[in-house]
Automatic annotation (TrEMBL):
Subcellular location(s) per record: Early endosome
Main location, first listed in the record: other
FYVE-type domain residues: 281-352
Swiss-Prot/TrEMBL GO biological process terms: positive regulation of toll-like receptor 3 signaling pathway; positive regulation of toll-like receptor 4 signaling pathway
Claim: Repeat is one of the keywords in the record: yes
GO cellular component entries: early endosome
Xref: InterPro entries: WD40/YVTN_repeat-like_dom_sf, WD40_PAC1, WD40_repeat_CS, WD40_repeat_dom_sf, WD40_rpt, WDFY1/WDFY2, WDFY1_FYVE, Znf_FYVE
Protein name stated in the entry: WD repeat and FYVE domain-containing protein 1
UniProt entry tagged with the keyword Transferase: no
Gene3D superfamilies for the chain: YVTN repeat-like/Quinoprotein amine dehydrogenase, Zinc/RING finger domain, C3HC4 (zinc finger)
The entry's keywords: Endosome, Metal-binding, Phosphoprotein, Repeat, WD repeat, Zinc, Zinc-finger
Ranges of the WD repeats in the UniProt entry: 20-51, 195-228, 238-279
Function according to Swiss-Prot or TrEMBL: Positively regulates TLR3- and TLR4-mediated signaling pathways by bridging the interaction between TLR3 or TLR4 and TICAM1. Promotes TLR3/4 ligand-induced activation of transcription factors IRF3 and NF-kappa-B, as well as the production of IFN-beta and inflammatory cytokines.
Amino acid sequence: MAAEIHSRPQSRRPVLLSKVEGHQDAVSAALLIPKEDGVITAGEDRTIRVWLKRDSGQYWPSIYHTMSSPCSAMAYHHDSRRIFVGQDNGAIVEFHISEDFNKMNFVKTYPAHQNRVSAITFCLASEWVISTGHDKCVSWMCTRSGSMLGRHYFTSWASCLQYDHETQHAFVGDYSGQITLLKLEQNTCSVITTLKGHEGSITSLWWDPVQRLLFSGASDHSIIMWDIGGRKGRTLLLQGHHDKVQAICYIQLTRQLVSCSADGGIAVWNMDISREEAPQWLESDSCQKCEQPFFWNIKQMWDTKTIGLRQHHCRKCGQAVCGKCSTKRSSYPIMGFEFQVRVCDSCFESIKDEDRISLATFHEGKHNISHMSMDISRGLMVTCGSDRIVKIWDMTPVVGCSLATGFSSR
């Protein structure tokens, strides 16, 4: 095991504080222990480990526990020191950790799923453990009795989960690219609505109960912000990653969104501005600029004796245009396009230089990231992935504030 410690903060970028190595396979989940210099990890090598920072500055395992099946998901409740570990075989195992973080006692096993557990959340108020799995369902179980309370099935693998503890609403993302909002009851549930906007499987969700915003990341490399509380169906598209978005975290205090992608990209998005909603793509049988027919418009091609053109769409206005009328590319961060996208020539002329100023910062994590977790109060972030490495970051230079005091330097 090795650790990298930087004593001098680097300006305007995440500072790598420590690198923890020891797992023999991909690390599925890593969580920072609140108010402690410690990390809990769960891996495909069937181990759960609690790492505590020693006087040397390095993290060494104080707990090393081997499970019966690869660990695929984890939830930790610090006040009660309860850990819930989801496994590849569908079971969830609960442990209680000692006050000194040197011992972990088995509590019970929950037969939650028939296949790999993908996400877990624990609600202390109702004593429910809620989870999603590759058996295409969300389940909720009673932690007092260990019994199943209810299940709801989807048409594809359920991949991620967020839960509103106050209203008992669950958001479930699946591999079809759909997000389902459910109202969970003691022994039943009802589907409130479904959200469709991604072109790839949902890989991560984050719910902010204060502003009532839902953020979703997907394998289509994009993030969508859904304004659930506004009830206007408003969505904002964020595109800046070049690989699937694996994890997201919204910092309500500073109105910033932190996202991580599989290629190691770390992005911090400024959400404290008035952004524009991306337009719906318009459909047309001919270019809405020059009126040349598209290749499926046989009648107009015959009438005008012209060859049909391929259809494209301007990302700024949404109009259906041909290649000759959309020769330009431009970034347009206020609409979420942080890299250059196709725009029609007239929209290109309307975009000013100041409109192209980035509204996000991008950084290299320099390792595969499949899971990320933040301790927002301390401005710390932990990332892990298939390269078996766990990295601990100081994010305060990037988010631009002292999160513990709420003091903003901006």
